[in-house]
Amino acid sequence: MIDVVVLFFLFGLAAGLLRSELKLPAGFYESLSVFLLLAIGLKGGEGLAQQALGPLVPQLGAVILLGVAQTLIAFAILNGVGRLGRADAAATAAHYGSVSVATFAVGINWLMTRSIAFEPQMAIFLAVMEVPAIMVGIVLARGLGRQTDWRLLAHETFLGKGVTLLLGGMAIGWAAGPEGLAPIKGLFYDLFKGVLALFLLEMGLIVSRQAGELRRRGVFIVAFGLFMPLLSAVLGLGCGMALGLSVGGLTLLATLAASASYIAVPAAMRLAVPQANPALSLGAVLGVTFPFNIMVGIPLYHWLALQLVGVTP
After folding, report:
1. Among 7, 41, 88, 125, which is disulfide-ready with 84 (CB 3.0 to 4.6 Å)?
2. HSE of 52 in the Cβ direction (CA atoms, 13 Å)?
3. CA distance 278 to 217
4. How far is it, in rounded angstroms, from Cα 184 to Cα 56?
């Protein structure tokens, strides 16, 4: 049976495509984003409070390299096969080297609904994997030059809303531990799925607005939006196997790798690579990759994770 939160996404998508007057209140989407980021951060921090942090260092290095590799591969495809200009190829590649909080939240919900355990450091992976693709994308687009305002760019990258909320939530969860978090679990844990459903309703409305852009961009960008998450998921599974993750952890790392950013990276690219066309990257990310991942990708990545663990001695 299809997950109820995905049904909310389909409802929003259908309403948007049918040009319904449905519209959520201004600022509601941002409020839901804040809640989801804090809830994910708190849960990750709670898990970290129950384990040693030292072994995480090599794992963080591995997922950073994963994000860099994804960005370089995506750029080679977009620039070489798709013949996109350097700026558009680099900016779009950065979107696909980074990650999506919404896709990650759907992945967590998918696993929790089925009582499948996963490693608590996945929330840290989410925060860490947002950053490298932005830096690589900028270098690919314009090289290292004096005109780049690195101070402002670093502020946007490391202290953006998403990374700040995730790291803040993890710090609180880690400091408070399971007992300290108990009084607020009713809000941040029990309501998680309901808030995610409302968030996906708004996402469906947003995605419906990308349909026209996809029609203008043609077959290549649609094909890229389907091929790149599959390739990235395979890379994520390989990385997860090397790190010794569980089936749930493998599924989530593959989901993270397959996802593409539509919040942090667009903001950074507007600042650093203003000549790139944001409609191109957002059309592929929101119009193709996001719906593919939440409706088909996550169950597929879990099935692949099961096959990999099953054939491992």
Report:
1. 88
2. 3
3. 13
4. 27
C-alpha dist (Å) from residue 143 to 107, 124, 139, 218, 238 = 35, 29, 4, 29, 30
pLDDT in tens, 237-296: 999 999 999 999 999 999 999 999 877 777 677 767 778 877 788 888 888 999 999 999
pTM of the model: 0.82
